[in-house]
Design a protein that fits this description.
Blueprint: E1 2-8, H1 21-26, E2 34-40, H2 107-111, H3 129-136, H4 155-158, H5 181-186, H6 192-199, H7 202-205, E3 211-216, H8 221-231, E4 235-240, E5 245-251, H9 252-262, H10 271-275, H11 278-286, H12 302-311, E6 317-320, E7 327-331, H13 333-344, H14 357-360, E8 371-372, H15 377-387, E9 391-395, E10 401-406, H16 407-415, H17 426-432, E11 442-443, H18 449-459, E12 463-467, E13 473-478, H19 479-488
Parallel strand pairs: 1-2, 1-3, 3-4, 8-9, 11-12
Antiparallel strand pairs: 4-5, 6-7, 9-10, 12-13
Helix pairs in contact: 8-16, 9-15, 9-16, 12-19, 13-19
The protein binds adenosine monophosphate (AMP).
Adenosine monophosphate binds next to strand 9, strand 13 and helix 19.
Length: 498
């Protein structure tokens, strides 16, 4: 893995762990990061793109397993505009050299107490009160983001506001029953994916070849957002040189929050983007309520990873080496679904994959957040902040879906340096999109869950828009819904609705 640390002149050159290759190599079995440094002075030039390496590390017999399922999957992170290749250049999950061998459950996962979330009973009881309390108590409750700079509490998760490991998996409960799921969860084999994810670790899902960009908190935010674009990544861990620790993540959500907060008009330059350091932004926005980064250990189960992502409503989960503190990988819903999709073909096929989306009720069908194609981008940003959804179906006057505007699309404003023009319409912004990476991929209610999962995995998207035959919007089926249903619901855990 190539780690690029981007810092400013003014910050002390005390890089995050990963530079000490000698030490880390002793600590294998985790992939060894290779570190490079990009110093950002006062020049206005963009940070150089990092090179991706393909550093296969010999990890011994037992660990040559599932991580070899692909060496390219992290390129899913490299989907930014104007960068090497488009979707075509990324290998589809099916073409990643998947070995015919079934991945063995790692001893780490088997030893992990969280992987022992047991087989739920099949009684149709509601969740006991204490379970609900334990689940909701680990969210962002208690966060005080201040009055003047108040933000939806959940946004704080993206900024690493929630406590580290805040969302301990609650004990197994009865299955969460949602519409057609109740029948399905009673059937034998309904827990096959739950068990699979309990038996494998985050290490198993980590790529052997990836690119990681780390920002020093003293870096100017404008340069940080440009660096995301230039390096083709969607998020970067934040390294505080003074504290000598990772203190959060910088994601596209932050870019949206900065624009939402400081944009005035096309005629007024956003001074704060030009001047503020990441540290300044965090101080203003977080109002001193700094909480540790939400992260996971490579030895934690993939079940725990799914739970942590969904429960904390984050889309990027850094995997930290518990000994050195180095960031080894950043897990995403896409990565986890792809892992399940590839190896799921080797598992007994559960009957629910043949039931329709309509029967199973997987997804969101009410109170949908949408944006009109004629609305300005600023309106879309307002909705992102208010509703905290990751994408908005774009509809025309007749209510038909004509596109999808995702949070990811907002980074195009940085790529094209057009973040001063938030008055252009969403429809226009979609036309200007250089690469149509997350176009309006849809599904219909009569399609089976298996078909929907196949399409999501094949297209490497985070969600499908559910439409009828006339393209009218019916719902959204996202990876959160699918992972919740496949992995958490069979354990009686509702991290999405809690
Ligand atoms: P995501 O953040 O996309 O993984 O989705 C989290 C939850 O929000 C899932 O239950 C989605 O179905 C739901 N969701 C996603 N997009 C929308 C939207 N535009 N309107 C309402 N709910 C949504």
């Amino acid at each position: 893995m190539l780690v690029t640390f981007i810092h400013s002149h003014s910050s002390p050159h005390r890089p995050p762990p990963g530079a000490a290759l000698g030490d880390l190599s002793i600590k294998a079995p985790f992939p060894l990061p290779e570190m490079s440094f990009l110093e950002q002075g006062d020049s206005t030039s963009w940070p150089s793109p990092a090179m991706t390496t393909n550093a296969e590390i010999s990890l011994g017999e037992q660990r040559t397993k599932v991580s070899r399922w692909t060496s390219q999957e992290d390129v899913e992170e490299g989907e930014l505009p104007g960068l090497e290749g488009g979707p075509q250049s990324r290998p589809a999950a099916e073409s990643t050299g998947l070995e015919a061998t079934f991945p063995k459950a790692t001893p780490l996962a088997q030893a992990n107490p969280l992987s022992e979330v047991g087989t739920p009973t099949t009684e149709r009881d509601s969740l006991p009160a204490d379970c609900t309390a334990s689940a909701s108590g680990s969210s962002t409750d208690g966060l005080d983001l201040g009055i003047e700079f108040s933000a939806p509490a959940a946004w704080g998760d993206e900024l690493g506001l929630v406590e580290e490991r805040p969302a301990q998996c609650p004990p197994p409960q009865v299955p969460v029953l949602r519409l057609g799921w109740d029948d399905e969860l009673r059937k034998p084999g309904a827990q096959v994916y739950m068990h699979f994810m309990q038996e494998h670790t985050c290490y198993d899902a980590m790529a052997t070849s990836s690119k990681l960009v780390i920002f020093d908190t003293m870096l100017q935010i404008k340069k940080a957002f440009f660096a995301l674009v230039a390096n083709g990544v969607r998020a970067a861990p934040l390294w505080d040189s003074k504290k000598q620790s990772f203190v959060g993540m910088l994601t596209i959500t932050d870019f949206i929050l900065v624009l939402h907060r400081y944009y005035r008009s096309p005629l007024v330059q956003i001074y704060e983007i030009e001047e503020h350091k990441i540290e300044t932004w965090r101080e203003i926005y977080l109002q001193g309520c700094f909480k540790p980064l939400v992260s996971i250990s490579p030895s934690d189960s993939l079940f725990e990873a799914v739970y942590t992502l969904i429960k904390n409503r984050i889309h990027r989960l850094p995997v930290l080496d518990p000994v050195s503190g180095a960031v080894l990988h950043i897990l995403t819903h896409k990565r986890l679904l792809k892992f399940l999709h590839i190896f799921g073909t080797l598992l007994p096929r559960p009957s629910f994959l043949s039931r329709t989306i309509q029967d199973l009720g997987i997804g969101t069908f009410r109170d949908l957040a949408v944006v009109l194609e004629t609305a300005p981008i600023l309106t879309a940003l307002d909705i992102f902040v208010d509703r905290r959804v990751s994408a908005l179906p774009v509809i025309n006057e007749a209510g038909q879906v004509v596109g999808l505007y995702s949070r990811f699309d907002v980074i195009h404003l940085a790529a094209q340096q057009t973040y001063n023009h938030l008055d252009i319409s969403v429809g226009e912004a979609l036309k200007r999109r250089t690469l149509c990476l997350e176009g309006v991929l849809s599904c219909q209610p009569h399609e089976t869950l298996g078909e929907v999962i196949d399409r999501i995995a094949r297209e490497q998207v985070h969600r499908l828009v559910l439409v009828d035959e006339t393209q009218h919007l019916l719902g959204v089926v996202s990876l959160s819904d699918i992972l919740q249903a496949l992995v958490l619901s069979p354990a009686g855990i509702d991290a999405l609705g809690a």
